[in-house]
Structures are given as C-alpha cells and as structure tokens.
Amino acid sequence: MLSENISMELKKKVQELAKDSHGEIVNTRRHLHQHPELSFEEYKTSQFVAERLKEIGLSPQEGIAGTGVTAVIKGKNPDKKMVALRADMDALPIVEANDVPYKSQNQGVMHACGHDVHTSSLLGAASILNKVKEDFEGSVKLIFQPGEEKIPGGASLMIKEGVLQNPKPAGIIGQHVMPYLPVGTVGFREGMYMASADEIYITVKGKGGHAAMPENLVDPVLIASHIIVALQQVVSRNASPKIPSVLSFGKVIANGATNVIPNEVYIEGTFRTLNEPWRAEAKEKMVKIAKGIAEGMGAEVDFDIKHGYPFLANDPELTKKLKNAAISYMGAENVIDLDIWMAAEDFAFYSHEVDACFYRLGVRNEEKGIISGVHTPTFDIDEAALETGAGLLAWLAITELQH
Ligand code: NI
C-alpha cells in the first residue's frame, strides 16, 4: 500500500493529467460520435482504438470476438496484481436529431448510449495510466468490447475468448453515462444493481374469418388478450415481493380489420429480474400459463424466450473501496448513491466471473439543455464529463491496485 502522502501526490498528478488531456479526449469522443458503427460491426472504431493505443505506446491485441481490442499497461511489479477496465464501442440504429458539429455522419446510426464517451474515456485513462506507470504496482488491462447492445453481448464473447484469463484480474471496472446525473457527479451502488433481461416472442394461432361469425372461428385476438393479462400474475402473485421483476409487452400485432378476425396474433415483450433461479422458474410458469389458456380456448401457441444478459451485481467490498476513492477524487457532494435500475447491461457477464464495479458518469446539464435520455435521437452529453470519465477511471484502477 502506498503511503498517504505519495497517494495524495499521485492523485493530484492524475487530476492534472486529466485536465491537460481534456481537449484531446473531447476530440476523440467527437471523432467516434461522427463515425458510429452498429453492434459487432465496429471495424473502423476498433482500428481507431488500436491505433490510439499504439500512439500511447502500448501493444494492443486486436480481433478478439471480432472487433474487440485489449492492451496491458504494466506498472512496477506488473505481475503483482491486475485490474481490468472496460469500455463498449457499439452504436445504435437511431437517426441523430442533434444539430451539432460532431453529428453522426453515418446516417441511421448514432452513439445514443454514450459508448463513444466510454471508449474515449478509457483511451484517456490509458494515456494517463501509461504516464504514471512508474508510480503504481501491478498492471491494468484495457478491454474495448464490441456489441453491448445486441444479444449474446460482446462481453460474453470476450470472456469466451479468454480476456479474463492469464492472468485473471482481481477486479473489473466499467462506467456508463447517466443523463439523470448532473455533469461533475458520479453514482455508485453496492450489490445488486441491474436486471437480467430476456426477450419474449409469442404467436397465438387461431382460426380467422368474418368477424360477424365468431362461432365458426377461434379468435386469437381475444385469446392473446387473456394471455397478456394472465401472464402478469407471474409478477404480481408468483414473484416474491422481495425480488424485483418486470414483465412488459411492447408489441402486439393482430392484423385484422373491423370485420376481419386474423388467423394469428404476434406478441413481443421483455422479462427482467434480479435472481437467476427465479428467472428460470418464471420462464417455465409463463410458458405453462400461455399454453394452458390457448389450449383451453382452442388455439395453439408458440412461446419463444431468447436468453439475454444476467443480472449485474457490484461486488460490495470493491464498490465501497472505489466509492471512497471517488469521494477523495471529486468530493463527497459529487458522489451519489444509486437505486436499482431494471435496464440490462452486458457488463453483467463480467460481474459473474470476477469482482466487478459498474458505476455511472453524470453527463446532464439542464442550463445547456442537455437532458435527453439514452437511446433517444437527441441524446448528448456535457463534454466536461470526459475529464472525470478519464481521470476518475484511471484513479479507480490505481486505487484498486494499491490494496
Ligand atoms: Ni449503453
């Protein structure tokens, strides 16, 4: 462990380096924002990342899980301990509506979830860490992954290709933009943080025909309606009140008319929770309920569940340590406690392999009108956040290596 004084000095050094490199990180972020690529197609992005890492003086490993890139920064006694830092690189199929000089030049694709921020921040942190590598012991592994937004998730593929092996990192840290948190703040939560997410696809198959003669038909619209209502009992009656669960259906297609009953009704939805055994049990219950209703009313049902990401749990000890480090880096008033968040994130896969901490970077600025949520065409950030995005991330890695 470093002495208090050395540690204070090093923190100051990191803060100054973050301040000095802010302009460069902004440029990197704008370049990435202008050239977004969809999940598992991050070819130019990954090439850009590898080139930047080489400029910093590192030897990146490319082509992991397709477009993934990793690199290791070695401090003193590099084999002593390793910490991993992770960023995701993919963008979303959204048409950007912002009128900014760095607007997406790839029509229909947009960094609307801040992965440009995560990637540029990690590159910034890499540059800072490489400049102070004589001042810390151990090594830092940088992980730039593809496909966070798309099942099966780039994280799961990176793990399969061994990014958490030889050596196994003692911990992994990831950050994500949060448009509800003001710029200059960050948020942490110990323990359970984000939900598992499974996609549900149901087809109710009846017998269509003239709406005036229901006695000759098997009405899939009515049966689908019963199924949607009945499935909510999985959340309201079968789920333990102590385990958060969400079941939402966002797509129902019954393509008939005022006087036409269709043959089929198609339903899509999502099931989210924070407990793996319950997740499996709930799936079985949902299939049983849907099949029972369909059969009882004379129809057939196809019930497909596409397995998504698991829940994300932040290691309590690691998170507490990093939260304290954030408090010392930016002041207690700027470090916020987060609530459970029922969205899903493929960083969850790492959290099931090694001690993990996923924290939030505030990017909101109401005065500047920067208030849009992620996954919207007007999402943007206050770029002042990039100084924290790079500096704090570097400092958290150093902190974890110190203990
Ligand atoms: Ni995201």
Could you give a quick summary of the protein structure above?
The protein is of the alpha/beta class.
> In order across it, which strands form the biggest sheet?
1-2-4-3-5-16-6-15
The tally of strands reads 16
What is the H/E string? HHHEEEHEHEEEEEHEEEHEEHEHEH
Strand composition percent: 15-25%
In total, the number of domains comes to 2
Structure annotation, total helices: 10
- Alpha-carbon Rg, integer: 24 Å
CATH third-tier fold name of the largest domain: Aminopeptidase
Per CATH, the architecture of the largest domain is 3-Layer(aba) Sandwich
In words, what does this structure look like?
The protein is α/β, with parallel strands linked by helices and 403 residues long. It folds into two domains: 4-194 and 311-401, Zn peptidases (Aminopeptidase), CATH 3.40.630.10; 198-306, Alpha-Beta Plaits, CATH 3.30.70.360. The chain is 36% helix and 25% strand. The chain contains ten helices and 16 strands. It has an eight-stranded mixed sheet, with helices on both faces. A hairpin with a 3-residue loop joins strand 1 and strand 2. Helix 2 (22-34) packs antiparallel against helix 4, helix 4 crosses helix 10 and helix 6 (220-238) runs antiparallel to helix 7 (276-296). The model has no long low-confidence stretch (mean pLDDT 97). The protein binds nickel (II) ion. Residues 113, 115, 148, 176 line the site of nickel (II) ion (NI).
